[in-house]
Amino acid sequence: MVKILTKPANLIAKVPVLAKKGIWFKLSDIPGASYISLFAFNLVNLINDYPKVGAGSYIKEGFVEWKNGVASYHLKRAQFNKATDLLAGHILEMTPEHKKRLKKYYLFAQQLMVESKKFRNLNFSKFSDTELIKRFNKLADLHRQNHLYGGILTFLPDEEQQRVSNGIMNKIKGLIKENKVKINLTLAWNIITTQRKRSFREQEEIDLLKFCIEIFKNKKLGELLKKTNDVCKTLKSRSILYKKLVFHYNKYRWITYMYLGPGYGIDFYCDKIKENILRGSKNMNKLYLEASNKHKEIVKSQKQLIEKLKPNKKDKELLLFAGEFVWLKGYRKDTFYHLFYSYEPFLCEVAKRIGIGNWQEIAFLFPWEFKKALIDRKFTEDILKQRRTRSLYYVSKKIIKFYYEKDVKKFKNSVQIENNIGFSDTLRGMIAYPGVAKGVVKIIQRPDDMKKMKQNNILVSQMTNPNLVPAMRKAAAIVTNTGGLTCHASILSRELKIPCIVGTKIATKVLKDGDLVEVDADKGVVKILKKK
pTM of the prediction? Predict the structure, then answer.
C-alpha cells in the first residue's frame, strides 16, 4: 500500500533517506501539464506497474517539480539507464514481449478514444457524488493502462539518449555500407522513419481542404471570402456551410487542447479557410491530392529502399517498425489530448460541487484523490493552488510525498542533480531534418510566445507541440532541448522540410531572444554567431 502524505509542507518537510542516495537528472521540462494529465500515472507506472508486465523493476523513485507552469521530471541516472537499455533492447530486437505490448497498447488506445468521447458527452450534473466517481474511475483505469503501455513503447526507450533512434540509425548505416547502396545516410534515415499512416492533424487538414474546395465551387462566395476580414461571420449567413464548419471544429478542436486547454477556437479554422481560399482553386486541389496520396508515396519509397538495403527478416521488421514508431509517439499524445479534453466537463462539475472557483485547480488532484475531494471534502483550494504554483512530489514504492514553496528548495538542496549547462558557442544535437539556416533566435514555449515569431526566425523550444505549429511554419530552422526521431519537432520538420536539430538538452538555457545563430542540421550543430 502506497502511503500518500498531503499534510502542510512544514509538517512533512523531511527528505527521504533513499532520495539522497545516487545521482538525479532532469529528464524533461514540460510546460502546461497538470497532475491529472501528464503525471497522474507516470511515476506510479514506472515504479509499480512496469515489473508486472515484464518491463523491469529498475525505477525505484522519481520526483516532479512544478514552477511557473512548467513541470520538471526527474529520475535517478543509474536506474533510468538500466530501464531504457532493457526497453530499447526489446524494440531493437523486435522481441515477442515487444510485439505483445504493441498489440495491447493499440487495444487500450482505441478503447480510450471511444470511452473518453462517451465520457465527454455525459450529463454530469445528474449524477450523485458516488456515481460521478464511479464513472470517472472507469475512464481513469484506461488512462493508467495507456500510460503504462504507451510509455514502455514510445516514451522511456527513446527519451534523453535516443537509444532506439540511434539503434535504428546504426542499423541503416551498417546496411548501406554492407550492400554498397549509393544513398546519403540522412536521406535514408528520413525515408525509413517517415510515418506511413495519417495523424489526426493530417486528416484534419485534408478534411478542411475538401471543405474549402466545396466552398469554392460557389465562385461568388469564394471571391467574397477572399476580401472579407471575418470568414466566420460570412459563413454564418450560409447556414448549411456554417453547420459543416462547426461540425469540423467540434470533431477536431481537441487536437490542440493539450493538458488544460482550451486549444484553438473556431476563429482559427476560419483563418485557415481564408488562407486556403487565397491559394485559389487549382492550388487547393493540388494540395488536396498531394495530402491524400502522400502516404502511398511514402510506402512506395520505403519499400524500394528496403529492397536495396537487403535486410534479414528481423532487421526488415525493425526498419518497417521505424515509421510506425514515429507515428505511435504522435498517436499516443493525441489520445491523451483527447482524454484531457474529455475530462474538462467532469473537472468543472467537481469544482462546482466543492466550491473551487477555477476548474483547472481540480486538475492538480491525482485520480485516486477525487473521492477524498468530492465525498470526504479533504482538499482545500489553498492546497491545490500551492500544487499548481510551486510544488514538488516525490514517489517511491512506499510513499508519495508532497513539498510546497520553501520546502521544494530544501528537497532539491538535499539531493544530487546533474548539471547539463556548459559554456560554449556551439550546441550539438540529433538531426531531425537536414539543411542549413541562419537567423535570429526566438524562444517559443507556449502559444502566447508565438506573437514574437517572425518569418525566418530560428524557433528554439524545450519541446514543440501542436499548438506551436503556426510559429513552426514561419521558422527557418527548429532547435529543441529534448526529443528523438519520434518527437513532434522531428515529425513536423520532415513534413515542412525545415532544418531541425533535437535533443540539444540546453538550447533554451544557453540561447536567448535576439541571438544570431547558424543551424547546421547536416552536422547536428548550432553555432552562436552573435549574442544579443
Answer: 0.91
